[in-house]
Design goal:
about 500 residues; mainly alpha; 21 helices
Length: about 500
């Protein structure tokens, strides 16, 4: 659906989940939008709706996380698969009418629309509020909405735009459609890539002003911020660090990653320290969705959850496994014997196809949900401390601080290895080590496509072990050159053809 058509039926769906029963018969019984938001509690419900929109299976619990990695060299399709995401995996068959890509685009703009609805109506509420505590609540809610909008736009530019090379280059590259309003939307025209990134930074500036922790906040007294499901000062820093890395602003990337790392609010989840007699903190983060390094996760409950990330890696029917995709052999071989991530992420099993191969245990799912026979469901950990170490290491290496980069990678590996793990980086090996570490740590978390794009690297797929029997049509053999147009996803065709649209297509649309 187009951005505008989304608005036609959304109206108050963007307003509040508690009003949803009033909208079942929209448009006949819909509450006019200018009457929907009158109190601070109404604004709170809008924020609840914003958080809830991130549960969409088109976003972090599904397509947004899986597609960028499935498209690359990290997995292989198995003979007998359901062909889920098959067009994406085959690479050369990605069309602007691909429904999986359309769903990501639409779901991200749905988040943005919810945020804009709040911004268009919060001033009316603020004008009527006299209580200081209520005014503080409104500031908090607006800060959360600004961050949510920045996060959504950061994903759009990552997937639908070219890599950011410099301010000058980005000024001449296509960005995304920027919307600040819900009631009176702007023309459907793409801003420049530079302006699109600046829009994200401006939203993060606003969020930072509104979501600052109290000056007397003490983690030792008030509790650490890890494992939170709400946006705060450090989720802003974490996203700033990621965005700065993508913009090649190494100083800013190091600065904001350091704010998170040095805050004392988060700790790498150890693979050797035990949370119970039989489970490490690192394993517990994946099996129970609680972790000392989780900066922000999408919250699920047994009655309200999103997609199941592990489905395509298991397709478990209570009896057997029928995976669509299995980890690439080169990835499996990257984990050293002492690297305990290998045992946490993968487990060898025999599938219904007769294939014995390591499957992606990382997304086998939350044990609480499994007790209800809900498998492969886990809460997406969108921002993790491990990524911040990787960001800072890369930024430092790009600035020639190889000692600092070595310390960051060694610190990360020390938390993941049974013993050892220290590395020494230099101008000759720094980026190779960091690139490999990003694969090992962030496997199937949605980073690989953009990493290859911003590093200007292609990849090859060769048929794997014959026991896979996964290449009946020669589809496993693929060579993708650096800067191939398909590194940038096509803009959905319906967006380009929508009435009044001035959206320019990407090269991959053609």
């Amino acid at each position: 659906m187009t951005i505008r058509n989304f608005k036609l039926y959304m109206v108050l769906a963007a307003a509040a989940l508690t009003f949803s029963s009033c909208l079942d018969k929209y448009p006949e019984n819909a509450i006019p939008s200018d009457e929907a938001v009158n109190t601070v509690d109404d604004v709170n419900q809008l924020v609840i709706g914003i958080y809830d929109s991130f549960k969409s299976s088109a976003l972090y619990s599904g397509n947004l996380t899986l597609l960028p990695d499935i498209q690359t060299d990290l997995v292989y399709a198995v003979n007998g698969s359901t062909n889920t995401y098959g067009d994406i995996w085959r690479w050369n068959d990605i069309k602007p009418t691909n429904t999986d890509i359309e769903s990501v685009y639409g779901a991200l703009y749905a988040v943005i629309a919810r945020c804009n609805f709040l911004f268009d109506h919060v001033d009316k509420v603020r004008a009527e509020v006299t209580d200081d505590d209520d005014l503080d609540r409104l500031e908090q809610y607006c800060g959360e909405a600004y961050f949510a909008r920045a996060l959504a736009y950061s994903e759009l530019v990552k997937l639908f735009c070219k890599a950011y090379e410099s301010d000058e280059d980005a000024a001449g590259q296509l960005g995304v459609v920027l919307n600040e309003h819900y009631d009176n939307p702007e023309p459907m025209v793409r801003a420049s890539l530079k302006d699109s990134y600046q829009f994200i930074l401006d939203d993060l500036d606003r969020a930072e002003e509104l979501l600052q922790l109290e000056d007397d906040f003490d983690p030792a007294v008030d509790g650490a911020l890890f494992d939170t499901v709400y946006f705060n000062e450090y989720t802003i820093c974490a996203l700033r660090a990621r965005v700065a890395l993508y913009m090649k602003n190494w100083e800013e990337a190091e600065k904001y990653a350091s704010k998170v790392i040095d805050s004392g609010n988060y700790f790498l989840s150890s693979c050797t320290e035990l949370v119970s007699s039989s489970q490490s903190y690192f394993d517990y983060m994946w099996t129970n969705d609680h972790g000392t390094e989780v900066i922000w996760k999408v919250s699920f409950t047994i009655n309200s959850y999103g997609g199941a990330l592990g489905t395509v890696f298991f397709n478990y029917d209570q009896t057997s496994y029928r995976p669509d995709y299995v980890p690439a052999e080169w990835v499996l071989n990257m984990y050293e014997t002492n690297d305990l991530r290998g045992m946490s992420y993968f487990a060898t099993a025999t599938t219904a196809y007769g294939l014995t191969w390591p499957l992606l245990k990382k997304y086998w799912g939350n044990t609480e949900f499994q007790s209800y026979n809900i498998y492969c469901l886990c809460m997406p950990k969108v921002l993790r401390l491990a990524e911040q170490y990787l960001i800072r290491a890369e930024a430092r290496a790009q600035m020639g601080d190889y000692s600092g980069a070595s310390e960051d990678i060694s610190t990360l590996r020390a938390s993941r290895f049974q013993a050892g793990g220290s590395v020494s980086l230099s101008a000759d090996n720094a980026m190779e080590v960091i690139e490999e570490e990003r694969v090992r740590e962030l496997y199937m978390e949605g980073f690989r496509l953009h990493d290859l794009k911003r590093w200007h690297k292609g990849f090859e797929r060769e048929p794997q072990d014959q026991s896979l029997d996964n290449d009946p049509n020669g589809e496993s053999r693929l060579r993708v050159e650096a800067d191939d147009p398909m590194f940038v996803w096509p803009i959905p065709q319906h967006e380009i053809e929508a009435p009044g649209s001035q959206i320019e297509p990407n090269e991959s649309n053609k």
